[in-house]
Design goal:
Largest sheet of chain A: 4 strands, mixed
Oligomer: heterodimer
Number of helices of chain B: 13
Distance between the termini of chain B: 28 Å
Distance between the termini of chain A: 35 Å
Number of strands of chain B: 2
Strand content of chain B: under 5%
Number of strands of chain A: 4
CATH superfamily of chain A: Fe-S cluster assembly (FSCA)
Chain lengths: 110, 442
C-alpha cells in the first residue's frame, strides 16, 4: 500500500475525495489532520484500501468517520470494493498535521 | 469491530438525553429558588432554603448531568459497552423523583424524617446504587487501566458513602454531634464531585484541546494526595482530632488539586486549537473559578486561626465557587462538547457521505451561548459580592442573571435535543472519464 507522500495519480484522486470528510469535532478535513496513512488503488481487483488512524483512542465519532470515508470513496468509485482499516500504529502525533490543517486549527473553524 | 471505537459501544440516546433535559430544568429552578431565598444565603449554609437550593443544584443539576454524561462517556474512556441500559434508565427515574421531594422537604424546613424526605432520600440512594452497579459492572469488563479511570471508579465509592451518610443524618440526627455533617459535605464535594471531575476532565480536556504528550505523573501524585488527604481529613472530623492533622490533610488535598490544575494547564498551553469555541471558553472559565475554590478551601483548613465571622463567609464562598462556579461552568461548557455529538450521531450516523450534514457545532445558537457566558460571569460575581457584603439585593440581582443564564442554556439544550434539518444530497466531484492506470505497487 502506498504511503500518502508517495501516491500515484489515481490514488491522489482517492485522497482528494477523502479530503471532503471533516473531523466533526474540529471541522478540519481528516487528510490535513494527518489521519490517513496509506491508500491503495487496485484496478484489476476493483479494490481500494485505505489505512487510517484517529487522533485519540476511544474517539466518540471514530467509526462514523471511517464510515464517512468508505461512503464517499464508494460513491466516486462505483463498482469498487472499498476497505477502510483503522490502525493505532504508528500512533498519531500533532506532527502529522499538514500546514493547511495547522492554519485551519489556528484560525479556528468556529 | 475495530479496536478502540466507541460508537458501537455507545448506549441508546434515549438513555442519556433525558438527563440533559432534566439538568437544564433543575438549573432554571435553582435560579428561581435563589431569587426567593435572598437573605438566607448570606447567613449560613445550614439554613433550610440554602440546603434546598444546594440539593437542587447538586442532585438535580450537577449529579443529573454527570450521570447522563458518564453513561455516554464510560464506553469512551473504558472502551466497553455500558453494563446495563435498563439500570441507567431506572437511575434517571429514581433520581428525578427523589430530588424534588428532598428539595421540598428542605425548603419547608422538614430536616427531620418526614415522609417526603425519607421517600426522596431513599429514591436518591436507590439511584446512586444503580449508578454504582453500572460503573463497576462496566469497569470490570474494561482492559483500559488508566489513572483517569481509577479516579472515576474511586469517586463512585465515595458517592455511595456520601448518600448513605446523608440519609443516616436525617434518620439519626444525634450523629450530627460526631461531625457527620462536615463529613457528608466533604465526602460529596471532594470524594465524589472532585475525584470524578479530575478523572473525566483529564480525559476530555486534552482530547478537545488536541494536546498530546502530557506528563501523567502529576495525575498519579494528585490521586494519592487527594485520597490520602481526604481519609485523614474525615478521620480528624470524626474523632475531633487536633487542628494540625486537619490542616495537614487540607494542604495535601490542596497540593493534589494543584497537580490536577497543572496537568490541565499544560494541556491548555500545548493545545493545537488556539481559538476556543464556547464549550472550551466556559471550561477555561471554570478552571479560573476553581482557583478561587482552592484558595478558600485552603483558608477553610486554617479555620481554627481565622475569626469566626470571616470563616462563615469563607466557607460559603468555598461552597458557592465550587458548585455554582467551577462545576456549573464546567457543565455549561461540556454540554456544548457532548450533547451535540450524541444527537448528531443519532441523526447523522447513517447519512454522512450521502448527504450534506451539519457539524455538531452548528446545532446550537451561538448568540444565546455567548450571551449566557457573560450573564453567568455577572451572576457569579454578584453572588460572591452578595455573600461578602451580606446584601440580599445583590443575591437577587445575581439570581436574575443566573436565571437568564439558565434560560438561554435551557433554550440551547432544547434546540440541540430537537435539532432537525432538511438534508441535501452530497454532490461529489466527478472524475474525468479516462482509462485509469494501474496503481503503482510499493
Amino acid at each position: 500500500m502506498a504511503k500518502i507522500d508517495n501516491l500515484n495519480e489515481i490514488e491522489q484522486e482517492v485522497l482528494e475525495v477523502i479530503k471532503t470528510v471533516p473531523d466533526p469535532e474540529v471541522g478540519v478535513n481528516i487528510v490535513d489532520l494527518g489521519l490517513i496513512y496509506e491508500v491503495a488503488y487496485d484496478e484489476e481487483n476493483k479494490r481500494i484500501d485505505v489505512k487510517m488512524t484517529l487522533s485519540a483512542r476511544g474517539c466518540p465519532v471514530g467509526d462514523t468517520i471511517l464510515q464517512h470515508v468508505q461512503t464517499v470513496v464508494s460513491n466516486v468509485f462505483p463498482g469498487f470494493y472499498v476497505d477502510v482499516e483503522l490502525v493505532w500504529e504508528p500512533q498519531w502525533t500533532p506532527a502529522n498535521i499538514t500546514d493547511e490543517g495547522r492554519e485551519e486549527l489556528d484560525g479556528g473553524a468556529f | 469491530m475495530q479496536a478502540g471505537l466507541s460508537t458501537k459501544n455507545a448506549p441508546s440516546p434515549k438513555v442519556v438525553l433525558p438527563y440533559y433535559a432534566y439538568g437544564a430544568v433543575a438549573f432554571i429552578a435553582a435560579a428561581i429558588m435563589m431569587f426567593f431565598a435572598g437573605n438566607d444565603i448570606t447567613l449560613t449554609y445550614m439554613s433550610p432554603k440554602v440546603l434546598s437550593i444546594a440539593h437542587v443544584l447538586i442532585l438535580g443539576w450537577i449529579t443529573m448531568i454527570i450521570f447522563g454524561a458518564l453513561y455516554q462517556l464510560i464506553p469512551v474512556v473504558m472502551e466497553v459497552k455500558l453494563y446495563s441500559e435498563k439500570l441507567a434508565m431506572a437511575s434517571f427515574i429514581t433520581l428525578g423523583l427523589g430530588t424534588p421531594m428532598m428539595a421540598y422537604s428542605f425548603w419547608v424546613n422538614f430536616i427531620g424524617a418526614s415522609h417526603a424526605m425519607m421517600t426522596g432520600g431513599g429514591l436518591v440512594i436507590l439511584s446512586v446504587i444503580m449508578f454504582v452497579i453500572n460503573v463497576f459492572g462496566s469497569a470490570a469488563k474494561t482492559e483500559i487501566k488508566t489513572i483517569e479511570n481509577r479516579f472515576i471508579a474511586t469517586s463512585v465509592v465515595w458517592l455511595l458513602l456520601t448518600v448513605i451518610l446523608g440519609l443516616s443524618i436525617v434518620l439519626f440526627p444525634q450523629i450530627l454531634a460526631n461531625g457527620s455533617f462536615q463529613i457528608h459535605i466533604h465526602l460529596g464535594i471532594i470524594g465524589w464531585f472532585m475525584m470524578l471531575v479530575v478523572g473525566v476532565a483529564s480525559t476530555l480536556m486534552p482530547m478537545f484541546f488536541i494536546a498530546h504528550q502530557l506528563n501523567k505523573k502529576c495525575l498519579e501524585r494528585a490521586y494519592w494526595m487527594i485520597n490520602g488527604g481526604l481519609v485523614v481529613l474525615l478521620t480528624t472530623m470524626f474523632l475531633d482530632l487536633g487542628n494540625y492533622a486537619k490542616l495537614g490533610a487540607g494542604v495535601a488535598i490542596f497540593l493534589g488539586f494543584m497537580m490536577f490544575f497543572k496537568y490541565n494547564l499544560s494541556a491548555y498551553k500545548k493545545r493545537l486549537r488556539r481559538s476556543l469555541d464556547i464549550g472550551m471558553k466556559l471550561s477555561v472559565l471554570a478552571f479560573s473559578l476553581f482557583a478561587l475554590t482552592m484558595l478558600t478551601g485552603l483558608l477553610s483548613a486554617f479555620g481554627s486561626i481565622i475569626d469566626a465571622k470571616y470563616l462563615t463567609t469563607i466557607n460559603l464562598i468555598y461552597g458557592i465557587s465550587l458548585i455554582y462556579g467551577f462545576l456549573t461552568a464546567l457543565i455549561l461548557g461540556q454540554m456544548y462538547k457532548t450533547l451535540p455529538f450524541i444527537v448528531w450521531l443519532k441523526l447523522y450516523q447513517d447519512k454522512v457521505g450521502k448527504f450534506k450534514t451539519p457539524l455538531p457545532a452548528d446545532m446550537h445558537s451561538e448568540e444565546a451561548a455567548q450571551a449566557h457566558y457573560f450573564f453567568f460571569i455577572a451572576g457569579f460575581s454578584l453572588l460572591i459580592a452578595g455573600v461578602i457584603f451580606k446584601e440580599a439585593i445583590l443575591i437577587q440581582a445575581s439570581a436574575a442573571f443566573m436565571l437568564l443564564t439558565a434560560l438561554l442554556y435551557g433554550y440551547n439544550t432544547l434546540k440541540i435535543l430537537n435539532h432537525k434539518q432538511k438534508l441535501k444530497p452530497l454532490v461529489m466531484p466527478k472524475l474525468k472519464p479516462r482509462v485509469r492506470p494501474m496503481a503503482k505497487k510499493n
